[in-house]
Amino acid sequence: MECDTATTSASVPPKDNPLKPISKSKIAAPDTETEDQETVTIIMESWNPTRGKLIPLIQTKLRTP
Predict the structure, then answer these.
(1) What would the 3-class secondary structure string for the chain be?
(2) Whole-number Å distance between alpha carbons of 22 and 28
(3) Which residues have C-beta within 8 Å of that of residue 7, sequence separation ≥ 6?
(4) Domain ranges (residues) in the chain
(5) What is the pLDDT, as a whole number, of residue 41?
(6) What pLDDT does residue 55 have?
(7) Angstrom distance (rounded) from CA 51 to CA 53
(8) Spatial CA neighbour of 22 closest among 32, 11, 30, 35
(9) HSE on the CB side for 63, CA within 13 Å?
(10) Where along the chain is composition biased (Polar residues) (predicted)?
(11) Mean pLDDT by 10-residue block, N- to C-terminus, for the chain (65 residues)?
(12) C-alpha 26: how far from its chain's center?
């Protein structure tokens, strides 16, 4: 099994000087998006299973003295 030095150099600092920062050219991630993929937008909304019915959050009871 061979080890690809291009992929391992991005996560491991150089052995001659472990404190030396990794150059930006080695950190760059490959473009994984292809032409046939579309960007997906996710919109988060609260969902109420009883939509259409009004449910009071605080129920107050009126007492007649």
Answers:
(1) CCCCHHHHCCCCCCCCCCCCCCCHHHHCCCCCCCCCCCCCCCCCCCCCCCCCCCCCCCCCCCCCC
(2) 11
(3) none
(4) 1-29
(5) 78
(6) 62
(7) 6
(8) 11
(9) 1
(10) 1-11
(11) 46 62 58 67 68 63 60
(12) 23
